[in-house]
């Protein structure tokens, strides 16, 4: 139920590059979200990125786990038809789950990827 299946992930480098080139970005202090609209009938796909500026592998993996957990718990609130790339920034390694969740949900709201109520 909460898996991140292969059809819901961006896997190939060219998929990431397409989202970077053609997508719109939304930024805050902890993360950057790139959004590329697709057909509304297709499921949304997401990719998680942390650069080496964040720190060593342990810190990068922790940041990626934080981002994945926020997505896992809120994935059913997001509408279909988007390719998303979530990039962790260096401040993400200093915050806890609650702050990361607030920040990432704020990005999703500003990018208008939540389902309409």
Any overview of this molecule?
It is built from 3 helices and 4 strands, in the order H-E-E-E-H-E-H. The protein is of the alpha+beta class and 117 residues long. It has one domain (6-111): Ribosomal Protein S5, domain 2 (2-Layer Sandwich). A 4-stranded mixed sheet has the order 1-2-4-3, with helices on both faces. The model has no long low-confidence stretch (mean pLDDT 93). This is Ribonuclease P protein component. Keywords: Endonuclease, Hydrolase, Nuclease, RNA-binding, tRNA processing. Consists of a catalytic RNA component (M1 or rnpB) and a protein subunit.
Concise synopsis of the structure shown:
The chain is of the alpha+beta class. Helices cover 37% and strands 21% of the residues.
């Amino acid at each position: 139920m909460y898996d991140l299946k292969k059809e819901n992930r961006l896997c190939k480098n060219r998929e990431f590059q397409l989202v970077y080139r053609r997508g719109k970005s939304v930024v805050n202090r902890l993360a950057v979200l790139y959004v590329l609209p697709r057909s509304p009938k297709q499921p949304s796909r997401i990719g998680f990125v942390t650069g080496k500026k964040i720190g060593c592998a342990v810190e990068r993996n922790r940041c990626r786990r934080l981002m994945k957990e926020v997505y896992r718990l809120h994935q059913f609130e997001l509408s279909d038809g988007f390719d998303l790339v979530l990039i962790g920034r260096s401040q993400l390694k200093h915050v806890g789950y609650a702050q990361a969740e607030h920040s990432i949900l704020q990005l999703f709201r500003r990018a208008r990827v939540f389902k309409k109520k």
